[in-house]
Amino acid sequence: MGQEEPDLYRDTWVRYLGYANEVGESFRPLVPVPVVWASYGVATAYVTADAIDKGRKAAAAHAQDPTRVGVAVVDTFVWQSLASVAIPGFTINRLCAASLALLGSLTRWPLPVRRWTTTALGLAAIPLIITPIDRTVDFLMDSSLRKLYGTPGEPPTSH
């Protein structure tokens, strides 16, 4: 039996494109808002590409079962949208907004220093929030949407 080919969207550097919006939110105090929105565009393109990829893999493995293809696409898109875009983007946005406000009320640091400190805090938080958010989204999906099509755990693959 040969080794399984790595998943481009989960096992390579491409996975980091899903974190683009968290980086964008971290830099919100320093960059124009359209740059932040562009980071959401990158992350959403990643999510969409992963969902399409999982649909193609499901189609190749289960050509006679379009339901499995639909489940693979929907499950991947919803999971990735929550775990890679919506929840972490909101989390970093609120963390950075709170830290900027707190630094403004608790320190006399100049605004540029407060902005850079906020950005550094946002960037430092990204690796800390990934696993808890992923596990929470797994739980949410297993408790809701996945009950409809009976696939607990990670999004369906081509297996």
UniProtKB/TrEMBL annotation:
Instruction: Name the InterPro entries for this protein.
Output: Mitochondrial_18_kDa_protein (IPR019560)
Coiled-coil features, chain-numbered ranges: none
- List this protein's GO terms for biological process: mitochondrial fission
Any one annotated GO CC term: mitochondrion
Please report which protein family the annotation says this sequence is part of.
Answer: Belongs to the MTFP1 family.
Protein name (database record): Mitochondrial fission process protein 1
Q: Which organism is it from?
A: Melanocharis versteri (Fan-tailed berrypecker)
